[in-house]
Specification:
Blueprint: E1 8-12, H1 17-28, E2 32-37, H2 40-54, E3 59-63, H3 69-83, E4 88-91, H4 106-131, E5 137-142, H5 155-176, E6 181-188, H6 197-203, H7 205-213, H8 224-235, E7 246-249
Parallel strand pairs: 1-2, 1-4, 2-3, 4-5, 5-6, 6-7
Helix pairs in contact: 1-2, 1-8, 3-4, 4-5, 6-7
The structure holds nicotinamide-adenine-dinucleotide.
Length: 256
């Protein structure tokens, strides 16, 4: 028995990194998965590889920009019809930007909010009605430890990821009324995915990972499955009494 046997899950930003690891994890544990990404070819490659491993009809893929309201409606309905329902939404797609309030330009500030926060509003708005028809449901929004701990040169990302934490609580309370759909946020510390490529280019891979690892009490950067396991728990009925929480997967950094 898999931990999410029979669940139907929709994962944004699934062409690489944490979204890909999450899609693979949920499929391994018995779910059908839909992988979407602005990089449609990347999403299709991940779905094809999951189907090779777990059998045709396990994974589906669509190109989707999570800032496009009409596309959300089309792709959620298509995924719902292809999988035969919808129980789990993982709002994972996100972007970062380095810059202080003086350095950051306003267009980039707005873009980060649109991709990281508006996407969650839109995804939840259109997924919840579809999820209601299919028993217990779970929404998992990928925030960041940067949504809890601020830094001077991360103004756009700090703002967006703090909003992800709070919108998740509002949605959790709204959904709690029916007793059926839960909503939680996950807060990763640095995890070794392509999002760290720029830092690796600047310092070299080994030094970049060591530098980031030194900031974390457990002494190392995380692996994508560290987050995929957290999502798995929240997606499964093991967490059926858990809603409105912020699950920190942060090597102890927020305990300091
Ligand atoms: P990543 O850059 O490796 O992958 C992000 C994916 O999102 C990419 O495939 C990209 O094409 C997609 N994407 C970007 N904009 C999109 C859009 N408008 N519409 C649809 N897809 C879009 O990043 P990752 O490390 O896998 O991060 C995934 C999530 O986890 C993000 O929300 C990120 O902020 C968060 N996070 C990551 C870390 C980390 O250190 N890796 C830490 C904390 C939080």
């Amino acid at each position: 028995m898999g931990r999410v046997d029979g669940k139907k899950a929709f994962i944004t930003g699934g062409a690489q990194g944490l979204g890909e690891a999450t899609a693979r994890m949920l499929a391994r544990e018995g779910a059908k998965v839909t992988v979407t990404d602005v990089n449609g070819a990347g999403a299709e490659a991940v779905a094809a590889s999951i189907n090779e491993e777990h059998g045709a009809g396990t994974a589906f893929a669509w190109q989707q920009d999570v800032t496009d309201e009409a596309r959300w409606q089309e792709v959620l309905q298509a995924a719902h019809d292809a999988m035969g329902g919808l129980n789990v939404l993982v709002n994972n797609a996100g972007i970062g930007s380095l810059g202080s309030v003086e350095d950051e330009n306003y267009d980039m500030f707005k873009k980060v909010q649109t991709v990281d926060v508006d996407s969650i509003f839109l995804g939840c708005k259109y997924a919840i009605p579809l999820m209601r028809a299919h028993g217990l449901g779970s929404i998992i929004n990928i925030s960041s430890i940067a949504g809890i701990i601020a830094s001077g040169n991360y103004v756009s990302y700090n703002t967006a990821k703090a909003a992800v934490r709070h919108i998740s609580k509002s949605i959790a309370l709204h959904c709690a009324k029916g007793g059926q759909i839960r909503c939680n946020s996950v807060h990763p510390v640095f995890i070794n995915t392509p999002i760290l490529d720029r830092t690796k280019e600047m310092f070299g891979e080994e030094e970049a990972l060591a530098k980031l690892g030194r900031q974390i009490p457990l002494g190392k950067v995380g692996e994508p499955d560290d987050i995929a396991y957290a999502v798995l728990y929240l997606a499964s009925d093991e967490s059926k009494l858990v809603t409105g929480i912020e699950l920190k997967v942060d090597g102890g950094i927020s305990a300091m």
